[in-house]
Request: fold
Amino acid sequence: MKHQRRTPAQLIQDKQAELDKLNLRIAADTARTDPVYGPINDGLDALKKAETNARKTLGNNKQGASARIQKHLLWVARIEAELTNAKTQLQGVKTLRKALKTLLAKFVKQEKKPTKAHVASQVKALLNPKPTQAESETQNA
Reply:
């Protein structure tokens, strides 16, 4: 592909753009030292900070929105897992509480008061049941 020569008008236009940019830079440097232009400088500084923050949010870094969203999605997934676990645990607690109350009622209704060791063994058996044969086979597999 051949390099196309720029026309004199294009060269002038490019040089004029450079000149305009330099004039703006000179004006900005002059305005920094003059307190009269303080409000403009403050506005420019605020815009620069806003631009920096916007670029951080849009970027692919730890502070970027994408990374933060991913981190929070993982956090939400952990919370949902905790929620599911809590629901299961609560159901188990309710079942065991009912079983313990039933056991207590059974012992209270008996004519002969049971020994503490017998009550403890019944509670232990209730709270730590031995796995069934099917459960044992599943654990060994």
Summary: The mean pLDDT is 88. Residues 30 and 105 are 92 Å apart (CA to CA).
